[in-house]
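Milestone M4 deliverable, item 7.
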Amino acid sequence: MTLCRACGNTETEVIHEAPEVPVSSCVLVTSAQQALSFPRGDLRLSCCPNCGFIQNDLFRTDLVDYTHGYEESQTGSATFRAFVDDVALDLIARHRLGGKEVLEVGCGKGEWLARICDLGQMYGVGIDPAYVPNRLPGELTRRFEVLREFYDDTHTDLTGDLIACRHTLEHVGQVREFATLLHTSALARPGSVTFVEVPDTERILVEGAFWDIYYEHASYFTAESLSRLFRSVGFTDVSVRKAYDGQYLLLEARAGSRDPAGSRTEEGVADVLRRARAFSRSVGMKVDAWNALLERRADRRVVVWGASSKAVGFLSALRESSIIEYAIDINPMKHGRFLPGSGQEIVPPEFLAEYRPDLVIVMNPIYRDEIGRNLDEMAVEAQILVP
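Output delivered:
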């Protein structure tokens, strides 16, 4: 029996299994040999028919290390920078946060925390074991401090007028307990707003996006299951919207009393379960199609653009991934390193001016135009495909 970690339901349905996948997709690996022998774990996704939450039943926190060489930054992209600025400015304006305090749980390298503090003249506290001191210029860090720790029940005295948790909840196994901690932090500051950003699992299911399934994502949310979870632990005024070309869910809520209605079954759960079953059927066909395509291009130069989680999820599922020799990324921290599991070397975009690829697989469609412009500037004529 597998319990749903969001609602406690005792029956869940297995929808997808992937044995021996890399346990991390963002660790900087220093050699191809180390990449190929990277630690692996088993993945088994199950869907709760009561609340629509999807979880990796086999997730083990002890297999994932966020403290050594974890590199998740996306701010090298102008497209991504514009998005995170828009999110910050919108929150500041609508909730009148100028000059106030922000707590970011799971702040990564502190880039968004620095940005919202600068844009709103705010003061902040971040918490994340993956934070790297002195990575950001000193003038950007003067308005906040960061605790290099995991958020737990010893931190609920930390609070703010804005409590933000971006791309962290999906890495958490015990999501109900974690959401309860956020609620406790929010209660400590009456009138505070809680903001949560996670990937949208509905898009993953509809598109059959097997490349968006990876080990360190223990939890997968639709808009309905995310809002239901936060209502059930006591949040009120819960709203969820989609953003970033439908890739992300943005939740806003305020702390209140526990909502008995939070335990009711959502009308959309049946649709989630139907899509989850369809996803399970479609993954094999998509993987076979990509293997066949790469076999046909075995004598061509093929690269992936985007050396992060999507690339690791994509290549780890393919039998023919060795045909791809390089992964392109604009983040200089990744250059000269290798993708966990499949071993492709990570190189900067300008490498392509000499390498002259025949095919570029763009791992995130939202960057297709930006990447196309980069290729044009280097006079690289290559076919562009998006999974």
